[in-house]
Design brief:
Blueprint: E1 3-6, H1 11-21, H2 26-33, E2 43-50, E3 58-64, E4 69-74, H3 79-86, H4 91-95, E5 99-102, H5 107-115, E6 120-124, H6 125-142, H7 150-155, H8 163-174
Parallel strand pairs: 1-6, 2-5, 5-6
Antiparallel strand pairs: 2-3, 3-4
Length: 175
């Protein structure tokens, strides 16, 4: 099983979670949008979401990355319970999954290894970049770098910089 870092679609948050959090009947609303047919699914995302903001009552959601569709809502965030629910899918279906995108919670790789035997684990880029950006900001503040837009210049690939950004980049590296 390989682990990689990628930028898969985080469709779940946009399509399902944000509009529903404000509504009552959180779980019921998820169940209405749940898709039962996993046929042909090759890339999925697994994530946990709090049913009530900042209250820790989590559900685990499984999303088809390619179609932006919700596949499963699991009323738990415990490894064993997630494994039990996901194993309800036939082995042939689980074997066709090639890639599973997860955040950096340590429990998801075990779940993926047990449930999806032929898959590659992909760490969601959002969860990788958050600590990188946090540390970059600390360093930038310690160095008292105040050039407007420097954070984005430092994070951007060199080949993607505009001419103006390249000039600022040279100034930043010379500080």
């Amino acid at each position: 099983m390989k682990t990689a870092i990628s930028s898969p679609c985080t469709c779940f948050l946009i399509v399902f979670y944000l509009p529903l959090r404000a509504e009552c009947g959180f779980k019921r609303q998820f169940e209405l949008k749940k898709k039962d047919n996993w046929q042909g699914v090759e890339r999925i995302s697994i994530d946990e979401v709090s049913q009530k903001k900042r209250q820790g009552n989590f559900v685990t959601v499984v999303c088809n990355i390619e179609l932006g569709k919700l596949l499963e809502v699991i009323d738990s965030h415990k490894q064993e319970e997630i494994i039990e629910v996901l194993k309800q899918q036939p082995l042939e279906i689980r074997e066709q999954v090639e890639e599973v995108s997860v955040d950096m919670w340590g429990g998801f790789p075990k779940v993926v290894k047990v449930v999806f035997p032929n898959t590659k684990i992909v760490i969601d880029r959002l969860h990788v970049m958050q600590p990188v950006i946090k540390e970059l900001n600390k360093i930038r503040q310690q160095a008292k770098i105040t050039i407007k837009g420097c954070r984005f210049i430092l994070l951007k690939n060199k080949i993607d910089l505009t001419e103006e950004q390249k000039v600022k980049s040279v100034r930043l590296m010379g500080l």
